[in-house]
Amino acid sequence: MFNALGDLVAFDLFGLAPDSPAGLAVQFFVMDVAKILVLLTTVIYLMGWLRALLTPEKVRAMMKGRSGPGARLTAVGLGAVTPFCSCSSIPLFIGFVEAGIPLGVTLSFLIASPMVNQVAVVVLAGVIGWQMTLIYVLTGLTIAFIGGYVLQALKLERWVEEYVWKIQMGEAAAVDRDDSLRGRHAYAWNEVRQIVGRIWKYILIGVGIGALIHGYVPADFVARIAGDGSVLSVIVAVLAGVPMYSDAVGVIPVAEALLGKGVPIGTVLAFMMAVIALSLPEMLILRRVVKWPLLGFFAAYLAVAFVAVGVLFNSLRNVFA
Predict the structure, then answer these.
(1) Phi/psi at 26 (nearest 5 deg)?
(2) Using 50, 70 and 90 to split pLDDT, how confident is the model at 84?
(3) Cβ(54)–Cβ(82) below 8 Å
(4) How distant, in Å, are the alpha carbons of 40, 50, 56, 112, 248 from that of 120?
(5) 287-316 in b/e burial notation, b at 16+ Cβ within 10 A?
(6) Are 71 and 105 in contact (CB under 8 A)?
(7) How far apart are CA 96 and CA 56, in angstroms?
(8) Helix H segments across the chain?
(9) Which of the two residues, 179 and 303, has the higher pLDDT score?
(10) Considering just the CA atoms, what is the radius of gyration of the chain in Å?
(11) Would you place residue 295 in the very low, low, confident or very high pLDDT band (cuts 50, 70, 90)?
(12) Which of 107, 118, 202, 287 has its CA 20 to 30 A from that of 83?
């Protein structure tokens, strides 16, 4: 259906040649925008029904006073099913600290939440298949889980900004919600409007970049730039993702185009993870609640983990071919 829509717009409506760079780019753009928006709207709406009573305050309450492996698994799991992005990092960080949740558990949540969520999983699977989606999810959750232990062992609490420890947020006030079918529909549709309204521009930018790569950039040029999957090429991919800013949905079309041009799967995974969780805007937001040393350790752990994942999966790329 989406392929047919792309063909209709690019080749019938605009009259572009199917083998021309412009034709390929427009066909890719229309197809992916339609596919992602349909999947995005559907998944957000369905999850809105299930998540009608799940708020950041309730997430904080669920985690209050918990520690150890169980707490980290819970934090990683909540990060995967909650729609909180970097814009929510500061209130969530403050709320978790005020609730007495160990810093390592909090950082596990902050790693998992932007990298892995149910919307990204479904959209990623619809665009590039379940195999790579499973790889992405498992590696993201593993990085978040291990990261909590690594960063907790460094005893970084002394580098949390002093005002964060002094904040007393108190118990969140209960919010009355209509639990009827009409009330859940209204809540779910409001989720769709808010989330799609927040990220639609990143979808268009991401699909636009992917379309340009798909239509205009020769495969051999991309292959030369990306390298052969060596450690250096993966490091370059991670560094290239740092200045960018997008959520998991927005970067998916770029990853799809890079894979289509023959870039190794590990390099693409490392690039995606860097854009989502290691971007400069994300780090600047976190800098408002932590000092530079803690931010440096946090970023360094993510960078090393992403490079390791990229090298590992590049070495296994024949398995996933």
Answers:
(1) -65, -40
(2) low
(3) yes
(4) 8, 17, 19, 12, 6
(5) eebbeeebbebbbebbbebbbbbbbebbee
(6) yes
(7) 10
(8) 2-7, 21-50, 56-63, 68-81, 89-98, 103-115, 118-128, 130-153, 162-166, 181-216, 219-226, 231-241, 248-260, 265-277, 280-286, 292-315, 317-320
(9) 303
(10) 21
(11) very high
(12) 287
For residue 124, what are its two tokens? Answer: 């990623």
Q: Are the beta carbons of 72 and 104 closer than 8 angstroms?
A: yes
- Give the whole-angstrom CA distance, residue 179 versus residue 116: 28
CA diameter of the chain? 64
Whole-model pTM? 0.75
Whose tokens are 């970084």? That residue is 156
Confidence at 81, pLDDT banded by 50, 70, 90: low
Q: How would residue 175 be classed by pLDDT, with cut points 50, 70 and 90?
A: very low
- Taking the C-alpha atoms of residue 57 and residue 73, their distance in angstroms, rounded to an integer, is 19
